[in-house]
UniProtKB/TrEMBL annotation:
Species of origin: Microbulbifer aggregans
Annotated catalysed reactions: biotin + L-lysyl-[protein] + ATP = N(6)-biotinyl-L-lysyl-[protein] + AMP + diphosphate + H(+)
Protein name: Bifunctional ligase/repressor BirA
GO cellular component term of the entry, any: cytoplasm
Underlying gene: birA
Binding site for biotin: S97, T98, N99, Q121, R125, G126, R127, K192
Pfam families: BPL_C (PF02237), BPL_LplA_LipB (PF03099), HTH_11 (PF08279)
Domain of life: Bacteria
Amino acid sequence: MSKSPLASLRPLLELLADGELHSGESLGAALGVSRAAVWKQLHKLEQLGLPVESEKGRGYRLQGGLDLLSPDEILSRMSASGKSLLGELQVLEQVDSTNARVLECMDAGTGHGLVMLAEQQTAGRGRRGRQWLSPFAAGITLSIGWQFQGGVQLLEGLSLAVGVALARALDRFDVPDVRLKWPNDVWCQGRKLAGVLLELSGDLTDRCGVVVGVGLNVGLPEELGQSIGQPWIDLTSVRPGVIRNQLTAAMLEELLAVLDEYPRSGFGAYRAAWSRLDQFAGREVTVHTGPREWHGFNRGVDESGALLLEIDGELRRFHGGEVSLRGRELGQ
């Protein structure tokens, strides 16, 4: 993997992460470079969308500071049992897509237990070919590789169980009104907070791998959020002050436990918890599959995680993939 252009800027980012003013002279002394070299690095930060503020005669600062991810900080907040399930933890400054990179490792047979996080994705992806926006240090984007023995049928409902794991992690920080939207979204106060993307690798009839990708909005700039095609929310607006390293550790604890347990329990162990969090339980909804759409009432999910839609008094099952769901009365 080629080295990110942001990697060389990490020492400067750590100095400016406190949001305080730092003189060019003090930055140069700390980094062991000239003031001219400092200025060039500051200019690179601005080109990458990080707002550097300067005050004449006083110095430079990053507006609002930065809450940087740190492997050591994340690991220090994980339990021994959680860390025992973790194969390798990588935190990158910038990458095209964490899912794509972990999927490459899975295809090469080396990605089981690999967790990859990135401060910024340049080609983050969501379901149905959509783009996932991930500006620098404004969210949590992570991917986990996991091997399963027994074929893809073992993975039925896994994306819903992942949603339960994320809701449990958010509950540790008292994030209010967290709900799940079938099949892959985490909502908060009626808007999308996080998304899940599962991608498969290997022999789907026997030993196969899955990459669990998660993107969670922490402090998404309003101007970027305007391009999202549905109501959205970020964590800072509902629960400010949550440290990203702490939340990441909680997410990994819950996600790794689900992945470890899932071959033995399947979706049945998570169905009741998912149903309690169903954003559209009992409500009239529309299900889209490509150009077609069905209208009916959401009657929950079955033992495999399929959506149960009541249409003219009869239940119809919808599985994951190219199915989306919108609450009709909200126009969502």
